[in-house]
Amino acid sequence: MTSISISEGSLFGLANLPYGVYSVPGQDPRVGVRLGEHVVDLALLLGDDVFAAGSLNPFMAQGHERWVEVRGAITERIQRDVPDEAVHELRDVTLHLPFEVADYVDFYASEHHAANLGRLFRPEAAEPLMPNWKHLPVGYHGRSSSIVVSGTEIVRPSGQRKGPGDEVPVFGPSVRLDIEAELGFVVGTGNAMGTSIPADEAERHIFGVVLFNDWSARDIQAWEYVPLGPNLGKSFASTVSPWVVPLLALEAARVPTPTQEPAVLPYLQMQRPWGLDIAVEVEWNGQVVSRPPYAAMYWSPAQMLAHQTVNGAPSRTGDLFASGTISGPAKDQRGAFIELTWGGTEPVEVNGAPRTFLEDGDEIVLSATAPGADGARIGFGEARGRIVAKA
Amino acid sequence: MTSISISEGSLFGLANLPYGVYSVPGQDPRVGVRLGEHVVDLALLLGDDVFAAGSLNPFMAQGHERWVEVRGAITERIQRDVPDEAVHELRDVTLHLPFEVADYVDFYASEHHAANLGRLFRPEAAEPLMPNWKHLPVGYHGRSSSIVVSGTEIVRPSGQRKGPGDEVPVFGPSVRLDIEAELGFVVGTGNAMGTSIPADEAERHIFGVVLFNDWSARDIQAWEYVPLGPNLGKSFASTVSPWVVPLLALEAARVPTPTQEPAVLPYLQMQRPWGLDIAVEVEWNGQVVSRPPYAAMYWSPAQMLAHQTVNGAPSRTGDLFASGTISGPAKDQRGAFIELTWGGTEPVEVNGAPRTFLEDGDEIVLSATAPGADGARIGFGEARGRIVAKA
Known about the structure:
The structure is a homodimer.
Chain A: E1 19-23, E2 30-35, E3 38-41, H1 42-46, H2 57-60, H3 64-78, E4 87-89, E5 94-96, E6 104-107, H4 111-121, E7 139-142, E8 147-149, E9 154-155, E10 158-161, E11 170-173, E12 177-178, E13 181-187, E14 206-213, E15 216-217, H5 218-224, H6 232-235, E16 238-240, E17 245-246, E18 254-255, E19 275-276, E20 279-284, E21 287-290, H7 301-309, E22 320-322, H8 337-340, E23 348-350, E24 353-355, E25 363-371, E26 377-388
Parallel strand pairs in A: 6-22, 8-16, 9-26
Antiparallel strand pairs in A: 1-2, 1-5, 2-3, 3-4, 6-7, 10-11, 12-15, 13-14, 13-22, 14-16, 14-17, 18-19, 20-21, 20-25, 23-24, 25-26
């Protein structure tokens, strides 16, 4: 039996216990929980083969009461007797995409982001927000197949673009490659077709939270997106963090969402506070360039899930819905470079050089922390990606 | 051993051989091929357990050469010795969704449809088509979880709408429920992330074709769709036909696509004719109300797949991409009721009554036929759905 040392102030102490999928050489991927700088194999810790799977989906499908029970069992066992063979050093393992993504929907839940993009994409419009924006959480479906785990290289996408000076569209690698710093919400159990998930029941369906970088080719997006929305400007890649922070670990992070005015329709009303006081950081080649505050988001994850299912659309274990870019009111709180550099017209200084959009070799790391139980602080790990040219 | 009788002129003779997934009471779903009014179990016919699966995905993943080989083997074995236990009467079996849907993308490939909708949704615009429309096949990702097999009841969706006379949005069951008569293309084998599928290689990746009814709530769609595209107006349900007609069966249906002017970028150019002379019919409560001609479609499925992957987005076995509404130039060739009734202002007569959008109890059946080998005609079966009120 092993006892696991956790350094004082670790973001991965008992208040966190995020789930991931790891492997060691010669072994298939399995579910583990992170504790400090270690990964503990859950099938061995708890003697339950649901964790011997290569994704969290079988466990997530067991439902909310089981999630509560397992979190309790981990907390108890991990302080008592951990079999030696269940413990790995984090540096010795490979981390994988922690869940199989079913449907993926990207929302647009930050008022600051939506207003900034409205001003940039539709400068002629009197109002930066569309008339529907404060009545429903606007969202669209994205591509599941290109959602990859932190560390995966991001190949610069090619596509059509047509700048203001171009008579006809041109084809080539994107020249306005951007990030979107978001959170992703992982659905553990869904709803049957023809039924809906009320906002107040969302916490029984949402298993956990990941960091999410929705890489965006702004030049491809600007040309393609009317009238049916973004497609190839987004579909080439999105990066998620390898650790799924349980929603159960975020009780201390709950804060009220900003006042919603006009009042929302009844199906979007919530009894509990569903804002999340999660502090996100965006690092560009090692330098922090933005600190988007998740607490500033207008629409909550409970509202997103309630909206997404109100028409009877079924959701499933492994569904992922993302918040859309997290931007706060201040300039250095903007979670996309198109906002941070105001469409490329106001470069930011990165390691001494003026920068606007991403160049080959650039590396972006998203990270985040939040208040946890008993005064602890908990971490989300990181969503890391480096841009490479197409071979 | 059985010999299977096929009536003269059957749409399901040896020129067709569509694949589906069927079950009989007490047995798990398995792959079968339709021959006349029979279903032949393929695992038993060919002695290959890849067909004992509940979806076509494992077989599709084996790739194009194997698809050619299996089609040859079926043709040969079915005329020689069919084990008794492999043959079922079509009326005795239950048909299931024939493949597991990975990512689903809906295109907008009919110029007539796009122009009609432009006139209806943006009457103030000088040009009905957006500037990008003739340069790229516009498309967006849709929801995979709500794709259901023919015969599944369609629950009328609820959602927000805001009519011209409404001061604020209202919530309730859609009052402008519509259809979109489309074809769906099933991807058998995909491409790795960071690579693309050239238009001229698309036929090695597209396994087959289904009928596709993209049910649409126009009131929900009109309010939600700016700026990120359709979401809840579409995500509640789409119906596919249970038989996947192999692309290999459609060689005789190939025709040139309409002239594309301006010329398309090189990645969208094709050497072979990729138009498909498929005649679609839309039945409303038993009465044919429209006959959309697939041959009139501007963008081809090869171009859709080439476009969808040109940014390096991976596609996978089970991906489905749909054509968008098939509309021809004539009024009675329009594949959506919003066009056919011009936004509800010009009712059509169905069984003697003037009709615009769908009422509870209405049943829609899509069907289609195409030229097959040796002068035969082949059928697509049907995509059937009846509207029911939410319980």
